[in-house]
Amino acid sequence: MIDLMATMAVMAAQPDPIASYTLVAPTSVADSRLVARTVLPAGASCPEVIVMRRTSKGIVKKSYSMKARKPAASARIAFNTVRVCSHNIPTNAVRATIAGRRVPSSMPQKVNRMAMLADTGCRIKGTSVQDCNSPDAWPLKRIARQIAKSDPDIILNPGDFYYRESACPAADQALCGGTPPPVPGMPFADSADGWLVDVIRPLRPMFRSAPMALLRGNHETCDRGGNGFFLFFDPRPDTAGLCGPVNGVAPEPATTPTWSFTVKVAKGRTLRVAMVDSAYGTDGTVDSWAAVQRPTYVAARKQTRAKKGRQSWLMTHRPVFSHVTWQFSPAPPTEWTTWGSLDQTAASYGLLDTYQMVLSSHLHLVQAVQIPGQPGSLVLGNGGTYLDPTTGYELPRFGPLANASGQRVDPAVAPYPNASMDWTSVQFGYAVAKPAGKTGWKIAHRTPEGARFAAWARPRSSARDGRLRFADGAERAAAAGPRGVVVVAT
Ligand SMILES: [Fe+2]
Fold first, then answer.
1. Which residues lie below 8 Å from residue 31, measured CB to CB, with a gap of 6+?
2. Could you give the dihedral angle defined by the CA atoms of residues 318, 320, 324 and 330, in that order, rounded to the nearest 10 degrees?
3. Which terminus of the chain is less hemmed in, N or C, by CB atoms within 10 Å?
4. Does 327 reside within a domain?
5. What was the pLDDT predicted at 284?
């Protein structure tokens, strides 16, 4: 009886994790390139991650005590309702469990499917309120379930997780009632409880599916949702407190170091993904931030030097080639361009020759842009947050880094030629990339219910450029509408 009571007492002190997941990490962090994380209610102690490992003596089981990952002391008041624990997964793991539940334990031996999603949270900012209670209006959980169903080998997310930046207005309780408001007096918007409702719980259905490679977006700058991003999702051990306020003020804008990881795709074929932190900067102009950002792209290029059998993608939240709707155009339009994010376009100028493709998000839509001579740009920001307008995506007359009159937006950099392929679709969803042929990929865009898109926002019959094209061929696509499959081929 005493034993039973003691056991019950231990059980009471060890509540189930709220969620457990595996992050892709730089090799400098973990030889396996994987970090296991778990989120528990405050007061719980960190559990063990139990790993089955292949060794020369066969499969060996070992337990590792997870360590608490602590937010900055100056941000703790907003994060004191959870305990986040972390431990690297050892190499050659074949199975890993936390509190009896499996988490992904190895990088894929061979990538057959990569799932991609971004810009996922439910918008509450001032009077702009999304219906967070409607799975049609905010379909993130559906998307996470579909991604789990698609059985991905790895999940890529270039950022913007946290969107509940204001208290739910009294008049909108039906839409967002129960949303934890920002903690008064803090120079940032997020909290642990906010992350649970906006990010962790809705994404939970896909956590068991595959390791996740995650970047922060501009919603995770230190004055917005950065504290939560670094606590929950940055894979590096020394970053949890990066966004902690100093003397009551959020830290100055700064980038975090570029890192990269490699996955096997097929025999003799690998994919390296360079991860660039583009949380800060401006979109409609080139300003002084471009020079601050440039070293992140220099580092990414160094990490993706050409190597036989290896392709590289660039992952960065703000796109280097993308255009917004003309509905966002301020007057006079002759001096403005819908091309953005221009600080990133300028910062990465001349540094993109190592990539087959650039994956980014930031715009709340799906867009595929091919600038001649450059890697294809896929913008995927339709993961659940309030969508951008559905019209106005006519291609600007001139290419990126030119304004509407063809003049340079920055005297230091010549504009790129205009896009040879350009497609925008504004609807919720996610994408799945599968290897195609010796070097290509087929990327299918799907709705939150898992159906392939059929929308075709801007037909362009002259498109016929090397790298990014539609599975149907652009000409046929223009007539019949693409099937939502973009092909990347070099
Ligand atoms: Fe963004």
1. 88, 90, 91
2. 90
3. N
4. yes
5. 93
- For ligand 1, the distance from its centroid to the CA atom of residue 160, given in whole angstroms, is 5
284 CA from centroid of ligand 1 (Å): 13
119 alpha carbon – ligand 1 mean position (Å) = 7
| 192 lies in some domain | no
pLDDT at 452: 85
Separation of CA 361 and ligand 1 centre (Å): 7
Residue 75 DSSP SS3: helix
Exposure string (b/e) for 369-399, b if CB count within 10 Å is 16 or more? bbbeebbbbbbbbbbbbbbbeeebbebbebb
- 319 alpha carbon – ligand 1 mean position (Å): 9
Q: Give a yes or no: residue 436 inside a domain.
A: yes
pTM over 0.85: yes
From ligand 1's centre to the CA of 218, what distance in Å?
5
> Residue 358 belongs to what domain range?
253-490
- Count of domains in the chain? 1
Ligand 1 centroid to residue 260 C-alpha, Å? 21
| DSSP of 113-160 | -EEE----SPPEETTEE--TT-TTTS-HHHHHHHHHHT--SEEEE-S-
Backbone phi, psi, residue 43, to 5°:
95, -25
Cα 488 to middle of ligand 1, angstroms:
24
Q: How far is the CA of 321 from the centre of ligand 1 (A)?
A: 14
In a domain, residue 310? The reply is yes
The residues pairing with 60 across neighbouring beta strands, listed in sequence order, are 53
> What is the CA(363)–ligand 1 centre distance, in A?
7
Q: 346: domain CATH number?
A: 3.60.21
As a whole number, the mean pLDDT across the chain is 91
